Amino acid sequence: MDDDVTELPPLDDLLETARVVAIPLHTRFRGQTVRELVVFEGPEGWTEFSPFPEYDDAEAASWLRGAIEFGYARMPTALRAEIMVNATLPAVAASEVARVLSRYDGCRTVKVKVAETGQTLDDDVARVREARAVLGAEGRVRIDANGGWNVDEAEHAIHRLCEFDLEYVEQPCATVDELAEIRGRVAYMGIPIAADESVRKAADPLAVAKAGAADLLVIKAQPLGGVRRAIEVVRLAGLPAVVSSALESSVGIAMGAHLAAALPELDYDCGLATVDLFTGDVTHDSLGPRAGRIPVTRPDVDPALLDRYRASPDRELWWRDRLTRCHALLH
Ligand SMILES: O=C(O)CCC(=O)c1ccccc1C(=O)O
Ligand SMILES: [Mg+2]
């Protein structure tokens, strides 16, 4: 590991406290109904390692770097004590929107997932219409296509969805070139384009900013290799940032909250309300939103909850092997 964090702690230190849990979700998200994750305890407190199962070791190693930093390194100075957060609405049927949104206390902003495989633009329009209706005219509605549209599809979809007054469109298309193209095509509508996968999964997280392909960046602490690196990406990009979760337990959400708290400017509500998509947590100090915000704290992990959500022995082995391989990659 390089000097921006700490010495790489020995693998045995990580494995000694590491616990693998599997927490069922209320609603399918990214095609998954259960979220598996590892928590471990460092000198600074509990931290989380939770790259998605399909990610390769090189990508997952960056998540481990972020996890180690949060457990072992001092966090930068917090400039705020609470973070305003958005409700995250998975690609559910329009009839379920009000029920799903009722779990988020006091959020004035909703991020609606669109362009889900197997669904149509009509499904997206119905879902966004319903979200706007629940939120009222003063709420903020943003959408996230996770790169699911080509440029023409994105242009068509944004034309149809702009009647709901979109705050921005996140990752409408997959590549940086496509983002630049769609950004130009919809600029006259005044709808900003946000980059997410083009930041956290790119070889160069700054490529999208250098290409002028986005108006703002979605920033995630674990995937970007930690809070310090994420702050540096935002600084070098020179663009506004929205801090977002990677669908983590309250421990990983706390990492995101510390990132959001340390950014010099934070003009958008952050995507850190996702523990409300979980049916449980590893702490009783859950970082679900209250009055539309979460505190910047480090939750205390409860051993009884680690037992309750303990993963099966084969999944536990799988995660410990993965952690071991990623640790080796960080040397
Ligand atoms: O930003 C949010 O509102 C919640 C986080 C979120 O949507 C997300 C969570 C896990 C993986 C990918 C994404 C995403 O933004 O695409
Ligand atoms: Mg996204």
Automatic annotation (TrEMBL):
<feature type="domain" description="Mandelate racemase/muconate lactonizing enzyme C-terminal">
    <location>
        <begin position="90"/>
        <end position="189"/>
    </location>
</feature>
<dbReference type="InterPro" id="IPR018110">
    <property type="entry name" value="Mandel_Rmase/mucon_lact_enz_CS"/>
</dbReference>
<comment type="pathway">
    <text>Quinol/quinone metabolism; menaquinone biosynthesis.</text>
</comment>
<comment type="pathway">
    <text>Quinol/quinone metabolism; 1,4-dihydroxy-2-naphthoate biosynthesis; 1,4-dihydroxy-2-naphthoate from chorismate: step 4/7.</text>
</comment>
<dbReference type="InterPro" id="IPR036849">
    <property type="entry name" value="Enolase-like_C_sf"/>
</dbReference>
<keyword id="KW-0456">Lyase</keyword>
<protein>
    <recommendedName>
        <fullName>o-succinylbenzoate synthase</fullName>
        <ecNumber>4.2.1.113</ecNumber>
    </recommendedName>
</protein>
<feature type="active site" description="Proton acceptor">
    <location>
        <position position="220"/>
    </location>
</feature>
<feature type="binding site">
    <location>
        <position position="144"/>
    </location>
    <ligand>
        <name>Mg(2+)</name>
    </ligand>
</feature>
<dbReference type="InterPro" id="IPR013342">
    <property type="entry name" value="Mandelate_racemase_C"/>
</dbReference>
<keyword id="KW-0474">Menaquinone biosynthesis</keyword>
<dbReference type="Pfam" id="PF13378">
    <property type="entry name" value="MR_MLE_C"/>
</dbReference>
<dbReference type="InterPro" id="IPR029065">
    <property type="entry name" value="Enolase_C-like"/>
</dbReference>
<dbReference type="GO" id="GO:0043748">
    <property type="term" value="F:O-succinylbenzoate synthase activity"/>
</dbReference>
<keyword id="KW-0479">Metal-binding</keyword>
<comment type="similarity">
    <text>Belongs to the mandelate racemase/muconate lactonizing enzyme family. MenC type 1 subfamily.</text>
</comment>
<dbReference type="InterPro" id="IPR010196">
    <property type="entry name" value="OSB_synthase_MenC1"/>
</dbReference>
<feature type="active site" description="Proton donor">
    <location>
        <position position="113"/>
    </location>
</feature>
<dbReference type="Pfam" id="PF18374">
    <property type="entry name" value="Enolase_like_N"/>
</dbReference>
<comment type="function">
    <text>Converts 2-succinyl-6-hydroxy-2,4-cyclohexadiene-1-carboxylate (SHCHC) to 2-succinylbenzoate (OSB).</text>
</comment>
<feature type="binding site">
    <location>
        <position position="170"/>
    </location>
    <ligand>
        <name>Mg(2+)</name>
    </ligand>
</feature>
<feature type="binding site">
    <location>
        <position position="196"/>
    </location>
    <ligand>
        <name>Mg(2+)</name>
    </ligand>
</feature>
<keyword id="KW-0460">Magnesium</keyword>
